[in-house]
Here is the input.
Amino acid sequence: MESYYAASLALAGSAVFAGGEPAPQEIKQWLLSKGYTEKDIFGYSILTEIPVWRRQGGAESFSDFYSAASRNAGRMYKLTGAALMSESELAAWYSQRNKKQFDSGAITIQETAPYNAADSLFTQKMDYQVARVRDAAVCRAIAEGLNRFDRVLVVYGAGHFGMEQKILRKMLGRPVLRTASGP
Here is the structure.
């Protein structure tokens, strides 16, 4: 949400604003290249929305939520046919992929947190791959901004800083603090 506020301030102050999120098709292509299926992308997309749905108190039932979320996931990632799972197919997919029972009331943001270790859930490993695409896209946007402007303000979640710092150091070298009296 910080980025929306920063963008509104930038635009109000006549500053240029550029987003850094990759297009859904870029995420889809990356995941497919890593061996994930369109069903995996669909299921992952639904899971990321469940905690938001509960927190915002949206649709009254999980079925209502699922109906809207599945249409959105299909449209966003251009998924069709068998990739568009029913509620019961999603539950079976989740249980098979994450090796635990699906309970929409128990899904938290941790189910799709980027974690890539031996004990990670399938959906956490998947989010790790999504984070790689997102971090690379943000770094490209930062580099483009630095090539066009003297000053660039980056507003992004702190959890991305570690990976982005590594990417930016490879691109730009170590940061140098410049003050009025010099470097």
Observations:
- The CA atoms of residues 16 and 149 lie 10 Å apart.
- Residues 2-172 form one domain.
- The helical segments are 2-12, 24-33, 38-56, 62-77, 87-98, 122-148, 161-172.
- The radius of gyration is 19 Å.
